[in-house]
Amino acid sequence: MRKLPSLMWRRALPALLALAVAGGASARAATLRWKFKPGETLHYVMDQKTLTTYDTKDRQLKVTQNQTIDMRWMVKGVGADGVAEMAQTIDRIRTKIDAPPTPFEFDSKDPKEPQSAAGAAMVPILKALVGAEFSFKMSPQGELSDVKVPPQLVETMRGLTPPGAPPNAMATEEGLKNMITQSSLALPRGDIAEGMSWSRPTEVPTPPLGKMKVEKTYTFLGPDPAAGPAVLRIGLVSKLELQPTPGADVNVKITSQDTKGSFLFNNAEGRITHSEVSEKIATEVSAMGNQFTQNVETSTSMKLAKVE
């Protein structure tokens, strides 16, 4: 398990709790819109692979994590303005972590629980996520509002924070809401032509590390040749900036980064069908008198499994 839970959940939870992508209507000019129908359910499967390498003066440690998430979006209603009332539920989580001294493997469908130190820390969070319902409103431009977080999940994460430890942004209701809201993509309101880009800067408090700023830039690449004119391609480039808290016990400095992605969006139906995002971030970390470098490589894919 990684030593910086705030950064781990910053990457992991937005993927678990929200989808962030949009599409267009034609190669020359497009109106990008999410579209939902009352009562429909969208099922998605997310696969995420992460390799984390820690380098100290004395040794190198590598940790691999593979995770598969089955989730569904339920559309409870759609207003005259196109704003949808949504609920997202995680139906299944499969996680495998290979880290010394003992590996960790968990499947929420398997009644047998892992017996390890990593399991003692991770299983309560994973079990709290499965079946928990997150609700929010989503506009046709992808703007999220009125986010509601399951109280049981908040209590579980808060209970895992050791007494006297600094506050963790993900252990609070407000922190979870911020993560969900900021992970969404607000689409341009007017038409956009092929080759044009739009950006969305976000800012999220991440105590005890500091403040995290993310600049995501999306580019409309036109129809996908293999899928037909209704399925559109969108490219992504993202940049992360971490502003540390003065005097904090943990200091993280980003030394290099490379985040890019591609999305397929069915604009006729107003939903993502497939996405691929890769992220490479190298950092220098100072914590409790110790210094080490951390390199994280993450690849995340998400596919629309079925619509009911």
Question: What do you see in this structure?
Answer:
- The protein has 308 residues and is mainly β.
- The protein has a single domain, classed as Lipovitellin-phosvitin complex, beta-sheet shell regions (Roll), CATH 2.30.230.
- It has 4 helices and 12 strands, in the order H-E-E-E-E-H-E-E-H-H-E-E-E-E-E-E.
- Strands 1, 2, 3, 4, 5, 6, 7, 8, 9, 10, 11 and 12 form a 12-stranded antiparallel beta sheet that branches.
- Strand 10 and strand 11 form a beta hairpin.
- Helix 1 crosses helix 4 and helix 2 packs antiparallel against helix 3.
- The two termini are 36 Å apart.
- The relative contact order is 0.19.
- The N terminus is likely disordered.
Q: What would the average pLDDT be, to the nearest integer?
A: 83
> What is the helix content?
10-25%
First and last CA, distance: 36 Å
Taking pLDDT < 50 over at least 5 consecutive residues as the criterion, the unreliable ranges are: 1-27
What is the CATH class name?
A: Mainly Beta
Radius of gyration: 20 Å
The domain count comes to 1
Query: What is the overall number of helices?
Result: 4
State which percent range the strand residues make up: over 45%
| Counted beta strands | 12
For the biggest sheet, the summary is:
12 strands, antiparallel
Oligomer: single chain
Shape: globular
CATH architecture: Roll
Following the backbone from N to C, one meets helices and strands in this order, namely HEEEEHEEHHEEEEEE
Structural class: mainly beta
The CATH topology assignment is: Lipovitellin-phosvitin complex, beta-sheet shell regions
